[in-house]
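re: the backbone from monday

yeah here it is again, tokenized this time
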């Protein structure tokens, strides 16, 4: 696999994510459900280590919500993969704005990242995070990424 990452598919997203992300990101154990140009759908399952923790209450992680810090990392990761479905190579995140609407106190979340514009210098889009069981909105995020032009991706 080359050092550039673009035009990924459902068949290549697993190996590409293994190549791209740090070990702690891989510990999120995101499940890649759907992949098409400009869109990725992933699942994030609840794990105690991803939840709020209180040293005074070690059992708290078993009943608390998934941490916002975890959700922000998962959103950036899934949107990164949506960017990688395009023809150009990302140079990284410029901005991410997260609007947390409700607690992530569920067994699993769905994260759907959609690129709304693949530009020459930037790409923009959104990620919607919902409770998989109920469809309840948990977070709406917008992201902007710096891009290399498609001709530099070859």
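seq for it, each position gets an aa:
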């Amino acid at each position: 696999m080359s050092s550039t990452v673009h035009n990924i598919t459902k068949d290549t997203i697993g190996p590409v994510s293994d190549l791209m992300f740090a070990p702690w990101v891989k510990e999120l154990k995101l499940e890649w459900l759907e992949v098409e140009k400009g869109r990725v759908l992933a699942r994030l399952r609840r794990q105690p280590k991803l939840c709020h923790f209180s040293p005074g209450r070690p059992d708290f992680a078993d009943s608390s919500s998934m941490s916002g810090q975890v959700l922000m990392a998962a959103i950036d990761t899934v949107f990164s993969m949506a960017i990688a479905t395009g023809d150009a190579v990302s140079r990284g995140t410029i901005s991410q704005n997260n609007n947390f609407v409700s607690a992530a106190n569920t067994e699993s979340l769905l994260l759907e990242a959609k690129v709304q514009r693949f530009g020459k210098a930037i790409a923009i889009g959104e990620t919607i995070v919902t409770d998989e069981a109920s469809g309840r909105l948990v977070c709406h995020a917008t992201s902007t990424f710096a891009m290399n032009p498609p001709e530099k991706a070859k």
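The first helix runs from residue 13 to 20. The chain has a mean pLDDT of 88.
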